[in-house]
UniProtKB/TrEMBL annotation:
Any one Pfam family match given in the protein's UniProt record, by short name: HI0933_like
The protein's name: Flavoprotein
SUPFAM superfamilies in the record: FAD/NAD(P)-binding domain, HI0933 insert domain-like
InterPro entries: BaiN-like, FAD/NAD-bd_sf, RsdA/BaiN/AoA(So)_Rossmann
Domain RsdA/BaiN/AoA(So)-like Rossmann fold-like: 75-141
Top-rank taxon: Bacteria
Length: 147
């Protein structure tokens, strides 16, 4: 499901609005604003819509079909590029073992943790980097004031 928090009707309305606002654009180009440019042509093919179809040539039934596919599509991961290409990884020091204000270990005094060494995975888009910098700052600040 590419839009798990959006109902099929709401998604259909969003697509319809996009198509209405950009009637002379190809549907595939508009859809790449919502999903990957590699998936958009496949989606159109599944819905039996020609890849060159303009937005104003797509009818309500086809829009509902697009929304239904986007809302119910299941992908099976068959392989990865390995850990060296990972965007984020899970695991690390358990957060309940670390003071959330100082980032000091609750088990070993004067031992501080920050960033991805902790078992925290944020959304993509800079959140993991922000957490790494912010937690590093707080851990460092508390480490130098440690008594």
């Amino acid at each position: 499901n590419f839009f798990p928090k959006t109902s099929i009707n709401d998604l259909a309305n969003q697509i319809q609005t996009l198509f209405k606002n950009l009637p002379k654009q190809k549907a595939v180009d508009i859809l790449t604003g919502l999903i990957s440019n590699k998936i958009a042509p496949i989606l159109l093919e599944i819905c039996k819509i020609d890849i060159n179809t303009k937005a104003d040539d797509i009818n309500t039934k086809q829009i509902k079909s697009l929304a239904h596919q986007l809302n119910s599509w299941r992908l099976k991961v068959v392989d990865t590029q390995g850990f060296s290409h990972a965007e984020a990884s899970g695991g690390g020091v358990r957060t309940y073992e670390v003071d959330n204000k100082t980032f000091e270990s609750k088990i070993v005094k004067n031992l501080f943790f920050a960033g991805e060494v902790l078992d925290i995975v944020g959304n993509r888009g800079g959140y993991n980097l922000h957490f790494a910098w912010a937690s590093g700052y707080l851990a460092g600040k508390n480490l130098i004031t440690y008594k």
